[in-house]
Specification:
Length: 187
């Protein structure tokens, strides 16, 4: 998947690669507090070397067909991203995730980007189930799952230790036949 236009506002979805570590780190600096409310990414990406290492792990996942990461650019500025945190091609399952800096909130960018990602996962890679795991307090991310037509599959009680506190996680998912029935046919 190369650059994909996300709409008439100039937003694009592009692969996020190790050579972009400086840009990724700068983006994380702009959104560190906001992103870190529910996502541990700012705690991992603490400097340019850590950013490069994180992106390299996803380059390795891409090469092994076990995950992917893509950035969301708005007016040629990296403002967020989406990923397939895990991919099990044999089982046909994957987990999608996202993050966004505050300047880009409220534009529908994550919903549009995840739509492209799920289309690819189901349509190209043959995934049967795409999961979306979110902290129960993260209403914005839960609303993305709802807009995507995902089903709330359950809530796990306090499995996630984050910054010294336990959090409940909601699991949302969509199955390939459900996704395909809702998506317009391309031809």
């Amino acid at each position: 998947m190369f650059a994909t236009d996300l709409g008439d506002d100039g937003a694009e979805l592009r692969p996020l690669e190790p050579w972009q570590a400086e840009e990724f780190f700068d983006h994380m600096e702009r959104g560190r507090e906001y992103i870190g409310r529910y996502v541990g990414l700012p705690d991992i990406v603490t400097d340019v070397d850590a950013a490069r290492g994180f992106l390299q792990r996803y380059a390795d996942k891409k090469a092994a067909d076990t995950g992917r990461i893509h950035g969301i650019w708005l007016a040629d500025t990296l403002v967020g991203g989406v990923m397939l945190r895990t991919m099990d091609v044999d089982q046909g399952t994957c987990e999608a995730g996202c993050w966004l800096e505050p300047s880009a909130v409220g534009r529908g960018l994550v919903t549009r980007a995840v739509t492209v990602l799920v289309d690819w996962a189901i349509g190209t890679r043959g995934m049967h189930r795409v999961e979306w795991i979110v902290a129960s307090a993260n209403e914005a991310s839960i609303n993305v799952a709802k807009r995507l037509g995902m089903t709330h599959a359950g809530t796990r009680r306090e499995p996630y230790l984050y910054r010294g506190e336990r959090h409940d996680e909601q699991i949302w998912s969509v199955l390939a036949p459900e996704w395909q029935a809702r998506r317009p046919q391309r031809g």
